[in-house]
Amino acid sequence: MAVRTEVSGRRRVHMTRLRDDTFQRRGKSRPRRRYVGAVVFALIFVSIALLVLSRLDHPYVAAMRSAAAPVLTPVLTALSGPLAPVRRLSERVQMLLAEQDEIERLRAEIQQLRGWQWKAEDLQRQLNALSALAKREPDAEIPFITARIIADSRGPFARSVVIDAGSDRGLKEGHPVISADGMVGRLVDVTPAAARVLLVTDFASRIPVEIGNDRIRAIATGTNGPRPRLKFLPRDAVPKVGDVVATSGRGGLFPRALRVGTVEDDNGEPVVKPFARLDRLEFVSVLIFESPALPLTTGTVAPRRVGQ
Amino acid sequence: MALADQSAPERYWVITPPIVLALFVLIAILPWGLPVEARFVMPMLPYVAIHYWTLNNRGLMPAWLVFLCGLVIDFVTRGPLGFWAMIFLIGQMSALWLSGSLGATRTRRWLGFFAVVALLGAVQWLTASIYFVTWVDVWPFATGIVVVACVYPFFSLALLTRSDEKALS
What we know:
The structure holds two protein chains of two kinds. Helix content of chain A is 42%, strand content 22%. Chain A has six helices and twelve strands. In chain B, helix 2 runs parallel beside helix 4 and helix 3 runs antiparallel to helix 4 (83-99). The two termini of chain B are 26 Å apart. Classes of the chains: A alpha+beta, B mainly alpha.
């Protein structure tokens, strides 16, 4: 009984303190409230300054990101592994919602692919015969590594994902990234244990592509929306809805013939519907593709340093 | 008052806000395989905790913690540094301003939260438009506002059984 009275007494004291803090602060702690307001205001100013530096792409911002990466990457790697079942569940729910459309689409695609398979085998035979005749050097196979997604983009800005492989596994900035479905993007930031992939949908993404059998050249330009736009099309070129868009290899930044997506119409403007399901990525492959164009630029552009 | 001098319930309430905030930040940044539309909602989740504790016990939600939480989201999502920190701090400032004028009824508190989240959505849209020098699509921001506004009542209900809510009533 005595214990109960003591507990109830402590609880009453606790309640009184909380009530004091909640209500009396309005009257008695006006200077403290002003102080808190001033701190918040000062931090808003710091945030805006950081935002401006980010917009100017200041090297300090890059240095801060590089410094934060070794701290955040192990946490993200440790936490994203156990998330796999949740991701699969989320994927299954979304698939169930769109199941009927998906089945119809897959049926049509299987029919189309059967026809293509026969054509491809026939073309391969012809190509082998002609290559032997012309003594053509065969295309070098591109090595690749597979990595897991440990964080993805949020909010109105960058469309990017972080993978759990970095320079320790031979990755470099610019390496193309693909999934089983098609082109995903390219590496933009590489740290020893992690790297950031700029998705094809990002505002800063520019990919030289070819469209359809006519091989119309264009640049697939990210908009931060789900469909990159096709820009710099030749005059009079009219890409057809449904035409396959693949990398052209022009400029040497990406290998040729990586599937990007299909042409769609967006109010009269041609856009690309990516093959890769960029919101459901779990594993991706990074192609260790050394750009043949890179040695041409070496020495012409000096890397920026902090403070420059 | 040092943590060791505090009673068990007081200790509980001192460590709860940073833990809940860290949890919301993790939920916001981890890859859940959610559809594209959800990406505008997730980073706003930590603001639910920031708003709640700024109104109920602002000493437990210091501005530096809010700033740090925004910066972590900026680092991980590779958005411009300072964006989410600025959004959360503007939200905290609005909540501070509201704490003097809002009553203790749940409806008024929810309306206050909705007003602040709508303001934050507008600031996000405007900042993104200025950043990209083009008018970005407004609908994902609007959807984000509605979804986050719906989360708040559940969050405050989950904490309603606690003693400080009783003290408020």
